[in-house]
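Handoff note, outgoing to incoming analyst
You'll be picking up this chain. Sequence as last confirmed:
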Amino acid sequence: MNVDDTIDLLSQIALVDDRVVKVDEAEQRAQVTMWAAVLRDVPLSFAGEAVGRHYAESAWPVMPKDIASRWRDHVRDRLGRSTGTFEPTDHPEVDPDDRYGNSYVAALRAHRTAVAGGDAEPVGLRELLPAVGSRLGGDRSVELVPANSEFREAKQTRFPRRERPAGPPERAVHCPVCGSSPGRPCRLPGSGRVMTGIHPSRRDVYDAAQSTDSKGDQQ
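Most recent structure output, in case you need it:
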């Protein structure tokens, strides 16, 4: 709410409770400024509903803290019913493989803000799962498959995973420095950032393994 919204709200309240709005002009200006600051995050439509609920429960004059408190409870309830994710088709610019990229984080924050403000509905766990007994392809006769398999297949179809370039052959062994498992890239100790190359000790382990395999073949 801005100052104009606050004046509108106070005008509506004055029609049903003349105890709220100040009579003195200087006091009115101070009241509008204070109410606008307290209710800056509250939509005008919600504030009007909160005023109605207040007088349905209390005979005391409504205060801005009463409206702000109801808004915080409302936001907490909406976020509590959300799984913290969003519908991928709403954000086609997001790379599904880059989970911690800037575009993914921005989309996640935008959806959370929209849910909190009432511009988007919470995405709950029930909405993410297919209905019990659902079939692939609608009415077509297709065998039922587990929900997780169906989800992976649909994701692969709509968001095909990019082929990652093959790493050096030394990745086939465990790295004794950073602890990366076979097939995984080496990481810098401390920061955990992925290295473009590999640790020398890992190359030594790989060479030793190759040497052992060669001797076994010769025997």
